[in-house]
Amino acid sequence: MSPRAACRLEQLGFTDVYDYVPGKSDWMAAGLPRGGESAQTPYAGDLASHDVPTCPIGDPLATAEKALREHRVCVVVSADSTVVGALYPDDLRNSGPDATIDETMHPGPTTVRANEPVDPLLERMRHADIDGILVTDPEGRLLGLFHRHHAA
Questions:
Q1: Does domain 44-151 have CATH number 3.30.70.270?
Q2: What is the maximum alpha-carbon separation in the chain?
Q3: pLDDT tens for residues 82-120?
Q4: Between vectors from CA 143 to CA 108 and to CA 117, what angle results, nearest 5°?
Q5: Are 87 and 104 within 8 A, CB to CB?
Q6: Cα–Cα–Cα angle for 111, 116, 120, nearest 5°?
Q7: For the chain, N or C: smaller number of CB within 10 Å?
Q8: Contact partners, residue 104, CB within 8 Å, separation at least 6
């Protein structure tokens, strides 16, 4: 919304008015609510699972053991939830007892934005033979995990 429109809404008594400067594309890439025609298109962020196990970077690898026993991946995140890596169950077996998450993780996992259309994404995932992909906002913060079966 333009600054002029935001000012007018405040004049009319609205208290929670925001002038979202980055624009509509950034808004949708962040997985924020949308309307109109774009609301009819299924995006990765709409179907992603939001209960993704995370592991703080810098922690001992042992802190990730429970998550890795229960899930196929633990997403390594910074303090502000920026995705920096991923851990997998085999990483526990291949690391020493004093290993840390940042020493063991696979850095820079592939991610997509929340406004990634589902159909082309599914095709790319089939071609790459992967079942899941991380969904992040434009700043790289974790929003969820999109699985191919979410679109079934």
A1: no
A2: 63
A3: 999 999 998 888 888 788 999 999 999 999 999 999 999
A4: 90
A5: yes
A6: 100
A7: C
A8: 61, 87, 91, 95
